[in-house]
């Protein structure tokens, strides 16, 4: 129920609505819950509403953290 | 899909699994509750539990809105749809939740009630606009993630001057449920569920932020690591929980920083505050009556409150006595402990709510995990 997916904002429409793209599928969603969205932003989409903006830098940092965790464990002699 | 595939990468998962296995102390057991059904689903679907050492146990929490909705509220929704000439709009998950005597919205529809599945509150509003001669009721359920869209719909209905749109409000609050789980004790005073920390909600936290969880680290000394719904997110959060447990710390940590900020979505919070007020208490399947755990529509918006507009006649709601959804939602039992599981209760013919939603512990276990458990138990027995 709280599942939500990242989608890219590609066009603004009237009444706080916007077009988003999900893997080539277009969808009209509401931006009524989120200020300051810009074209090209990825937003977290839930039941037709953008709930949060995805922060690309934080996403990079998290992916880097995953890699570091594994590397550190392997470096300390852990085996898969 | 960007921001999805990378967080399911098998190589990174191996690394995290190695780190978890290296850091988990073999001389103790770790018991972490994943509050959200979304995490329960991710654990089952990606086989994350197979990558954890046997002494790291995941306990499923009550964060599945369909699962925790008590049978009385399902009965009332069925009564709304059958006793009044309304169009009842609902999210798809709710259609098959069994009420008393296995009545459900889908059965009501097969008998002629006008029950319609909607993807969004926007669709429900559209139906109301298109059918000015009919009463349209939106069956609103969900945690903090799903509440703001309902608030927007009520505000929009007011702006449009819709007189035929009301909301049957069942929105519930995550921190109150966490409090109920941690506060439940046996008559001897021991906690009902022993926990070493929580995998904290993903999108609930995108709305409410990280601050509301500080009460659990401060008052209950339980670590909370907010995690995204992808498998690597869940694994990283488990690693962080193990580290906190090893260090004897209880902090709120945010693994899902790409979508969750400390303050959350302030605009959504303000809208929810404007439209909703906290109920004194609300009944949950599994948790019973929980104080200050749900929302009602504020008096200023009472014209949109279906509970005030429609009177329904509902006999005493009755749960299926054999269904173990209650103890499963409290983290006290597993799906396989239920005598109905996989025999008379399956996703095709659910007897209990936890088998209906894909986020329910029973449905997740049936779909992805049922062949694994026996093997695990055998291994544990032989160990």
Q: What does this 3D model show about the protein?
A:
Chain A is built from one helix and five strands; from the N terminus they run βββββα. Chain A is an alpha+beta fold. Chain A has one domain: SH3 type barrels (Roll), CATH 2.30.30.140. Chain A has a five-stranded antiparallel sheet with strand order 3-2-1-4-5, with no helix packed on it. In chain A, strand 1 and strand 2 form a beta hairpin. The longest helix of chain A has 20 residues, at 56-75. Chain A starts with a strand and ends in a 5-residue tail after the last helix. The mean pLDDT of chain A is 92. By secondary structure, chain B is of the alpha/beta class. Chain B contains 15 helices and 13 strands. Chain B has helices spanning 10-23, 37-45, 65-68, 71-83, 105-110, 121-130, 147-160, 174-183, 203-208, 214-219, 231-247, 266-275, 306-309, 325-329, 361-382, and strands at residues 30-36, 56-63, 86-90, 114-117, 135-142, 165-171, 197-200, 224-226, 252-254, 276-278, 281-284, 288-291, 295-297. Chain B has a five-stranded parallel sheet. Chain B is globular. Chain B starts with 9 loop residues before the first helix and ends with a helix. The model of chain B is unreliable at 377-383 (pLDDT under 50). Classes of the chains: A alpha+beta (80), B alpha/beta (383). The interface between A and B is large, with 44 and 63 residues.
């Amino acid at each position: 129920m709280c599942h939500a997916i990242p989608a890219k904002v590609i066009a603004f429409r009237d009444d706080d609505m916007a077009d988003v793209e999900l893997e080539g599928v277009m969808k009209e969603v509401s931006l009524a819950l989120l200020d300051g969205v810009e074209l090209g932003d990825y937003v977290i989409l839930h039941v037709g509403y953008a709930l949060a903006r995805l922060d690309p830098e934080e996403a990079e940092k998290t992916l880097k953290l995953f890699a570091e965790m594994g590397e550190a464990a392997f470096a300390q002699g852990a085996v898969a | 899909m960007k921001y999805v595939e990378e967080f399911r990468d098998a190589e990174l998962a191996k690394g995290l699994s190695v780190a978890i296995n290296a850091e988990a102390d073999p001389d103790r057991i770790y018991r972490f509750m994943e509050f959200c059904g979304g995490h329960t689903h991710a654990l089952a679907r990606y086989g994350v539990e197979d990558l954890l050492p046997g002494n790291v146990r995941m306990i499923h929490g009550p964060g599945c809105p369909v699962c925790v909705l008590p049978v009385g509220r399902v009965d009332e929704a069925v009564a709304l749809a059958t006793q009044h000439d309304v169009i009842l709009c609902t999210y798809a998950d709710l259609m098959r939740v069994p009420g008393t005597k296995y009545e459900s919205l889908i059965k009501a529809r097969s008998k002629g009630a006008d029950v319609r599945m909607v993807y969004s509150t926007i669709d429900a509003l559209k139906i109301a606009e298109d059918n000015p001669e009919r009463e349209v009721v939106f069956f609103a359920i969900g945690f903090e993630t799903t509440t703001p869209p309902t608030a927007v719909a009520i505000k929009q209905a007011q702006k449009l001057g819709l007189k035929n749109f009301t909301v049957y409000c069942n929105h519930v609050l995550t921190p109150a449920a966490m409090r109920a789980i941690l506060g439940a004790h046996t008559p001897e005073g021991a906690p009902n569920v022993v926990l070493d920390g929580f995998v904290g909600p993903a999108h609930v936290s995108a709305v409410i932020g990280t601050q509301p969880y500080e009460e659990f680290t401060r008052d209950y000394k339980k670590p909370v690591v907010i995690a995204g719904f992808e498998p690597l997110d869940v694994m990283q959060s488990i690693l962080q929980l193990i580290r906190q447990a090893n260090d004897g710390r209880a902090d709120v940590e945010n693994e899902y920083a790409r979508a969750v900020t400390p303050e959350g979505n302030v605009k959504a919070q303000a809208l929810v505050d404007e439209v909703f007020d906290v109920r004194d208490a609300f009944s949950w399947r599994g948790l019973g009556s929980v104080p200050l755990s749900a929302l009602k529509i504020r008096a200023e918006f009472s014209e949109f409150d279906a509970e005030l507009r429609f009177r329904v006649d509902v006999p005493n709601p009755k749960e299926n006595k054999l269904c173990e959804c209650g103890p499963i939602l409290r983290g006290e039992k597993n799906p396989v402990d239920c005598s109905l599981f996989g025999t008379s209760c399956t996703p095709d013919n659910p007897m209990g709510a936890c088998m209906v939603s894909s986020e329910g512990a029973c449905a997740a276990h049936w779909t992805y995990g049922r062949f694994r458990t026996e093997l695990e138990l055998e291994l544990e027995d032989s160990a």
